[in-house]
Design a protein that fits this description.
The protein has 116 residues and is an alpha+beta fold. The chain has two domains: 2-54; 60-115, Beta-lactamase Inhibitory Protein, Chain:B, domain 1 (2-Layer Sandwich), CATH 3.30.1450. It has helices at 2-16, 22-55, 65-72, and strands at residues 77-83, 86-96, 99-105, 111-115. The longest helix has 34 residues, at 22-55. It is elongated.
């Protein structure tokens, strides 16, 4: 969102400066472009840091299977249990954080139990 606002600012600076000194307009345009590049770099660094934290943190009871899959990627294996209550799943991740993880997911897709 901030990038979009900065881009709009750049175009408004460029259009509003047409009647003014072209040197000042060029300087302001360059400053706005530098600000956009700085914001993009900060966002990339934040995204990389967040992704690393997520990858290295264990799942929590109450998370959804989709959240787990987004964080740790596809599991090594999924076992399905069928009962009168519907299907539940044992999701296995081999050698995550130094050990094998068994994550149990109910029929609504929510993690109910974790074993490692």
């Amino acid at each position: 969102m901030r990038i979009l606002i900065a881009m709009l600012f750049v175009s408004s600076v460029a259009s509003s400066q047409e009647d003014e000194c072209p040197i000042h307009a060029a300087i302001e345009l360059k400053e706005a472009q530098d600000e956009i590049q700085e914001m993009i770099a900060k966002r990339k660094a934040f995204d990389a840091e967040r992704a690393e934290k997520v990858r290295n943190n264990p799942p929590k009871v109450g998370m959804t299977f989709e959240m787990l899959r987004e964080n740790w990627g596809p599991p090594s294996k999924i076992n399905t249990t069928t009962s009168i209550y519907g299907n539940s799943y044992q999701v296995i991740y081999d050698k995550r954080l130094g050990t094998r993880w068994y994550v149990y997911v109910d029929n609504t897709g929510v993690i109910t139990t974790i074993q490692h």
